[in-house]
Amino acid sequence: MFTKFGNFIYGISVNGVSKLGVVLITSSFIIFLIAQLAMLTEVLTNAYIGLIVYLLFPSLFVIGLILTPIGWYKYKKNTGKTTIELLNERFEPVDTKAGVSGAKVFRTFIVLTIINILFLGCASIRMLHFMDEPYFCGTACHSVMDPEWTTYQVSPHAKVKCVECHVGEGVGALVDSKLNGAWQMISVTLNLYERPIPTPVHQLRPARETCEKCHWPDKFYGTRLITMVNYKRDSLSTPKYTSLGLKIDTGKSGQRSGIHWHIAQKNEIRYASVEDKREKMLWVEVHQLDGNFKRYTNKDYQQKPDEIEKIRVLDCVDCHNRATHIYEDPQRAINKRISEGLLDFSLPYLNREALHAIIKIYPDKNTAQNGIANHLRGYYKRNYPEVITQNIAVIDTCISVLGDIYNRNIHPQMNISWGSYPSLIGHKGENGCFRCHNSKLVDENNNSISYDCVLCHSISAYESSEPFMFLTPADSTDRDFNMHRYLQEEFLNCYPR
Amino acid sequence: MRIITIIFTFALIVAINIMANGGDSNPTVTGKCMTCHKEKSPGLYNQWYMSEHATHNVTCLNCHSADRKDKDAFEHEGALIATLVTPKDCGQCHDKQFSEVGNSYHATAGQILKSNDAYLAHVAGGEPVAITGCESCHGTKVVIDKNSPNKLSHKNWPNSGIGRINPDGSLGSCNACHTRHSFSKAQARKPEACSKCHLGPDHPQKEIYEESKHGNVYYTNLDEMNINSDRWVVGQDYFKAPTCATCHMSEAPTQKATHDVGQRISWTLRPVISKHKENWKKKRGNMKQVCTNCHGETFVNGHYYQYDALVHLYNEKFARPATDIMNIVKKNKLMENPAGFSNDIEWSFWELWHHEGRRARHGASMMGPDYTWWHGIYDVAYNFYFVFLPQARAYNDTEVNTYIDKMLTDDPMHTWLSQDAKTLKENIRSGKMQKIYKKLFGLN
Asked: What residues of B are in the A interface, CB distance below 8 Å?
């Protein structure tokens, strides 16, 4: 058996080119099999090994397959011999003798070709499968993708593969993504990429194909009660609570309203934004199924005559732009860690000093870790020497937690600092909901889209000393009495009795 | 019939009461205002939240609600409101203060549009500086603009000038001193409230106060001024130092607090030549009653003796002759250009009285030595002798020259110019020089 293949390999290795081809074919084939075995047994796990195994070896194998016939053809041309003459020269007569099912050399060729096709097929499938793994996306281009990989792993979508949102289904999507990936490889190799990399919102698959596979529009979320805690920057880091009843889906399905009204089947929201950045709106339209629509135009923006409007139909990612790669706001990150018990706010001014420690600008992550430690230890050493002697372990834990917050959110190598990737869910400043719900976008009668505070959420506590404070009886001597009463009634009226 | 009359009368009373209360002040609507503004303008909300207004349940619509007939009323989130809160609005509760402010000199500050200062700002500067400069302190005439979101012209809003001419006919702006939305008494009691406007080359009251003993002890004892106290009677509730408000407005054991700032001022130091104000003796008496809480009567009388003499010195030695000369220049049509302030002598005359002349007088009134002399009379003298007189002489007009020559040879206050220094020094040492000015002391 091996002699037969040995003879065949010898027979086709007519010159340097075809010898090289044969060497590439056999060596890449054997190494691929060994590496694949090592990967299946998890001896090798590194993403770069996968890259070599699934990209390099199959490529070398194909190059070998191309070089071998080229060498044969060249040899034939140089010697001026016919194919029959060459076959007779390179193979034993017994191998070239025609049988019922062809010559032996032909049969060997056919068998090897089938093996090649099977090998390439399997390698391709394994390669595509490997490239579909988040591990590949997140670690193959380490420095570039590290921030996204870090945030992805702690996100609500950590169990959803990157490709399910970023590639989508179908051959077209696959080809697109591979072409895009090829360009990314070039830009990483030649250092052409932007830092920070722009959010690929424009290239994302339509939400109908991605988000809605799990979060289908008919799914009814109702009102969701949440409480956010914000710690004051005083010595006690006093907690203040804001409780909201998020009116995600209200009304009956036919008369659907609430926040998800925007993506209800009967509505279509279209908009055009300045430079298509989806931040400052030029206009917003609400289209109904019957063709009626209403436009709200930004009265404060003078459109340039040559400005091209790119019309966008609103979908999930216009608001949920950071559903997965969530970069935290520094204060909110600290609030979360305190409320989870990771940061001990019995330390005086813990909230304020923790914030100061992490928002300083550090050149790299190592310096940041030292800087955070120095800031916190230094502060307590200077101002509360007794605290530091009694709470060394507590302060060290805080330093470690703050270091983790920094590492999760700040990536100096990619120029990612606080606020580089703002979230558009909710509202902060003029962002999020207030892009459309503001006084500047008006219809022909100068009416704006409502930006009433209780349009999208009831407010049951607002920087209050307790969660759901406004659901308790109002005290007429309280300065917030009127607001308390108003918000209590509003909340209760959302649930008609 | 009788029942109908009773019902009708009752309905009328209710209607009048609602109108008097400025319309809708529904607590639910107020709650809505608070909800949004706590998010959108947390500074504003927190200023109010910590204020006395919040303590007494004075909320948004108590001040901002409007009637349909108000020219600046507009619909906002289901409420009919006005941005502008005028002294008349504040007067719904603070009626005494409203009436005092209305009668005060402060309330007339908006008449600036007719004054020389405004003319100068408009011609030498231009409208933007008249708005952002003059009218910011003096107040603007608020014009209604139907296209503006709050119905107020952008040229007139924002404006917190003390003599603002409001669409409801009232004059002034309470938040000139009691800044929104804290409307703090304490703020208005501090000199910083006044020094938004009372400073600079033409009326440096802030700088003079800082230089004076009064300012000195105030800044040394900031924490001991009991400034937040409801009752704030000098000598009783605090005693370390007086602020602007102490002397001009606040309560003393024998003086009621007043928002009519002129009630304790005896001289007007504003015009070219100072003169006593109407009822000046009573007004001086008012001020003296404040002074005597910390000073003996002789001390107080001594101050006025010195201060009056300085005002007379300025009036007689510089202001009158300069005015006479300017009158001759104008009468004889000597100035080359027709427009006011288009000739250099007009600028030097202006600065003589409007800038350094006032500095000297204000300096003396508030015990600021440097402002009385180096920033005051010293500058007046330099301007008078070496800028103004040479400019006047440059016209080569016989009447002007005769006046100046006569003044320099006959008026003993000016004859020093032609004497030698040795004689003058001897005269100072011997007291002969001082005798020239004897007539200025003890004058009324």
From this structure: 27-32, 34-36, 38-39, 49, 54-55, 57, 59, 77, 149
A-chain CB neighbours of B29 within 8 Å are 486
Identify whether A420 is part of a domain: no
Please identify, among A151, A176, A193, the residue that sits at the C-terminal boundary of a domain: A193
**Which one of A240, A480, A483 makes the best mutation probe of the B interface by having the most chain B beta carbons within 10 Å?**
A483
**Strand segments (E) across B274-422:** 275-276
Query: Do A479 and A404 reside in the same domain of the chain?
Result: no
Sheet harboring A457-464: ordered strands across? A223-231, A239-247, A457-464
DSSP of A218-258: T----EEEEEEEEE-SSTT--EEEEEEEEESSBS-STT-BS
* Mean pLDDT value across chain B: 93
Please give the residue of chain A at the shortest CA–CA distance from B34.
A483
- How far is residue A296's CA from residue A189's CA, in Å, rounded to a whole number? 46
- Range scoring the smallest mean pLDDT among A112-126, A480-494, B347-361: A112-126
A255, A400: one domain: no
Which band of pLDDT confidence, cut at 50, 70 and 90, is reported for residue B166? Answer: very high
pLDDT of B12 strictly over 70: no
Q: How many domains does chain A have?
A: 4
Higher confidence at residue A158 or residue A108?
A158
Q: Same structural domain for residues A407 and A372? A: yes
Domain assignment present for residue A388? The answer is yes
State whether A479 and B27 contact (CB < 8 Å). Answer: no
pLDDT at B69 (0 to 100): 94
Cβ of A486 and B49 within 8 Å? no
Which residue, of A89, A115, A131, is where some domain finishes? A131
What is the domain range of residue A394? 330-414
A123 and A12 in a common domain = yes
A442 and A381 within one domain? no
pLDDT for the residue numbered B15: 45
Q: Tell whether the model's pLDDT for residue B265 goes beyond 60.
A: yes
- Give every CB contact of residue B428 below 8 A, 6+ residues apart in sequence: B434
Using CB atoms, pick whichever of A439, A479, A483 lies closest to residue B35: A483
The chain A residue lying nearest B54, using CA atoms, is: A479
Residues A107/A8, Cβ–Cβ less than 8 Å? no
Q: Determine the average pLDDT of the residues in A9-26.
A: 86
In 3D space, the residue among B107, B131, B104 whose CA is nearest the CA of residue B118 turns out to be: B131
Do A176 and A298 lie in one domain? The reply is no
From chain B, the residues in CB contact with A243 under 8 A are none
Cβ separation A482–B31 shorter than 8 A? yes
> Residue A340 domain-assigned?
yes
